[in-house]
Amino acid sequence: MKGKLIFITGATSGIGEGCARKFAAMGSNLILNGRNTEKLEALKEELTAQGVEVLTLPFDVRDRETMRQAVDSLEGKWRNIDVLINNAGLVIGMDKEYEHQGIASHDTDDCTRNGRTRQWTYHQYRFYCR
User: Other CB atoms closer than 10 Å to residue 102's CB: what's the count?
Assistant: First the structure.
């Protein structure tokens, strides 16, 4: 994974933060997304000290227009994303974004069982960001 560009949503805590640390340890460059700017910047500082490049994109993934703008603003090498870790968690008490788009929750289970998790994630990225 050395030199690959990894985009991680929900990178300010939990699985996303853990993934960011693991990929940085493997030499991957990172685009980190989360709602908490201070946590993103602290993580960026920690990980760049390991010699990897980190770009932070603070926004809420439920705001599709802001997400489109953020992704469209990527320039140069930051546009060549190798892996998307679509990890942004469900905030209890909030509507599930996919329910408004006709994507049933079983779709993700079906894709995982069929070994197509990355394809579904990439499709979701294309659906929301392009």
Answer: 7
Structure tokens at 22: 């693991």
Cα–Cα distances in angstroms (integers) from residue 31 to residues 44, 62, 95, in the given order: 9, 18, 26
Are 10 and 34 in contact, with CB atoms under 8 Å apart? yes
Residue-level pLDDT at 64: 87
Q: Is the pLDDT of residue 92 over 80?
A: no
Contacts 24+ apart (CB under 8 A), 112-120: 118/83
Mean pLDDT of the residues in the chain: 77
Kindly report, residue by residue over 52-63, the tens digit of the pLDDT. Answer: 999 999 999 888
Q: How far apart are CA 96 and CA 93, in angstroms?
A: 9
- Backbone φ and ψ for 10, nearest 5 degrees, come out as 65, 40
For every residue of 10-53, DSSP letters joined together read STTSHHHHHHHHHHHHTT-EEEEEES-HHHHHHHHHHHHTTT--
pLDDT of residue 1: 86
